[in-house]
Amino acid sequence: MAKRIDVSDLNVYYGAFKAVEGVTMTVEPRSVTAFIGPSGCGKSTFLRTLNRMHEVIPGGRVEGKVMLDDQDLYASNVDPVAVRRTVGMVFQRPNPFPTMSIYDNVAAGLRLNGVKGKKKLDEVVEKSLNGANLWNEVKDRLSKPGAGLSGGQQQRLCIARAIAVEPQVLLMDEPCSALDPISTLAIEDLISELKSKYTIVIVTHNMQQAARVSDQTAFFNLAATGKPGKLVEVDHTQKIFNNPGVKATEDYISGRFG
Amino acid sequence: MSTDTVAKAPERAAPPALGHPARGRAFRDQLARVVMWVAFLIALIPLVWILWTVLSKGVGLVLDSQWWTNSQKGITSRREGGGAVHAIQGTLIQGVTTSVISVPIGVMTAIYLVEYGRGKFAKAVSFMVDILTGVPSIVAGLFVYAVWVTTFGFQRVGFAVCLALVLLMIPVIVRSTEEMLKLVPNELREASYALGVPKWKTIVRVVLPTAFSGIITGVLLGLARVMGETAPLLILGPYTKSIATDLFGGYMATLPTMINQDRTESLQPAVDRVWAAALTLILLVLILNLAGRVIARFGSVTK
Fold first, then answer.
1. Which chain A residues contact residue B190 at CB under 8 A?
2. What angle in degrees, to the nearest 10, is found between the helix axes of B119-133 and B158-183?
């Protein structure tokens, strides 16, 4: 189910501005990869190229290759909508659909893609909410609006919504930055569980979080404002945090700059 | 709490000699408050005055059940009696027809401008809408007259009035819908895209429902505005005293033309009818406005 991501020589642009330059890396299936680095270094931008969300922004384009197993995501015959069904995404701020109930939020991905049948939907909703460790908290109020939940619950609802369409890969863009420590812990536990089924890529500003949840860590940096961000180093999380290969990584992790 | 602060104040180092800034600020605060209240009351005077005049002079006839059931057929200025149902019907029929034409065009134009429009064409469309907003209603009426009557040689009928009102209603709907669509957070669109939902479906199933109550409010306010329009009706929709429901044949009465018909009369029955018709029109517009508010409140997304 989970797939491997192979990125080679990827440049990402906003119009004429090159935001990220020359990224080459591999993400193994059923693993968690964390992206760390200072603000504006292109982590999120790069993350969004992995499910072709980058091109939603006017002027957004990409050069290079992103392979999902043996499928090039940017091949001319690939439908970006289909890519996003395969590679799900969870955003920084919880964003449940405000007009929909908890149930409808989780079922949204399937319903909007034309899946019908109450039995099938019931099944998927329960499974996804269970998968997001939210079922026990909301099973008695599935018809209440999703926006009425707490921030941490909303974010788990968004994760449930994302895994309801059974993606191969799950991208998370700072999923805990708007949450309190307890909710953060709940999400981190969830990430460790989801790892057995999905390939997960997570952007985080929290170094401890990267160290706690990820198997592999990628450090991004930019030379100066206005210059493109670059992938400085990617390696096993243990190695990045204990014995990084590049001085800049060590400086960043130990808090000497940034 | 406050006594605490007062008690502690002397212990602190004396403030440098800056005078009493608090006194000046308090004075300016009071002054601004008074000016705002006076402005508010001045603005209120004509509103209350109009409402009172219309209400006191028109309420008698409006409370009469005949007013809501009979037309003016066969009733001269000299005679009392009759009702305004022909004019109320005409106003409602024309209002609904105008909305049926304007709402799809206006809402879809707004969707284009907010969700798809990029570059020169979108700018041109937006500019046109601005110009259309500024078109005086009599110009819209004359334009439709030039096309409908002069060029095509058709009769002056209710539908021609609707066409002129459409010209006035579309920009109102485009602008209000645009504002509502812009209020829908981009994160919701992205969340939908990230589920592999195509853009058009995202707009139909996520963006429009989120903005729905706001769009409805805008439509009702636009409708209220065109229902009170008079100039195009004077040009395109002559008054008649009998009930007419055919938009394509014959004259059709409306409340504004009914008011206009009798406004020069000095005979009391006709004068009373003018005030009652004015009150009826105000009531219709008021009901639409209230409906807009209610939908906005109860249909709005619970945060």
1. 53, 56, 89, 91, 95
2. 130
Which residues in chain B touch residue A85, judged by CB atoms under 8 angstroms apart? 195-196
Domain A5-253, classified CATH 3.40.80.10, yes or no: no
For B234-277, the pLDDT digits (tens) are 888 888 888 887 888 778 889 999 998 888 888 888 888 999 99
Provide ipTM, 2 decimals: 0.88
Please state, as a whole number, how many other Cβ atoms lie within 10 Å of the Cβ of residue B1: 4
Domain ranges of chain B: 85-298
The answer to whether A46 and A36 are in contact (CB under 8 A) is no
User: What are the backbone dihedrals phi and psi of residue A178, each rounded to the nearest 5 degrees, phi first?
Assistant: -105, 15
Where exactly are the structural domains of chain A? Answer: 5-253
Which CATH number among 3.40.50.920, 1.10.3720.10, 1.20.1250.20, 3.40.50.720 corresponds to the domain B85-298?
1.10.3720.10
Q: Is A239 helix (H, G, I), strand (E, B) or coil?
A: helix
Please give the model's pTM, rounded to 2 decimal places: 0.82
Give A40's strand partners: none
Task: Give the residue on B whose Cα is nearest the Cα of A144.
Answer: B302
Binary contact (B194, A99; C-beta < 8 A) = no
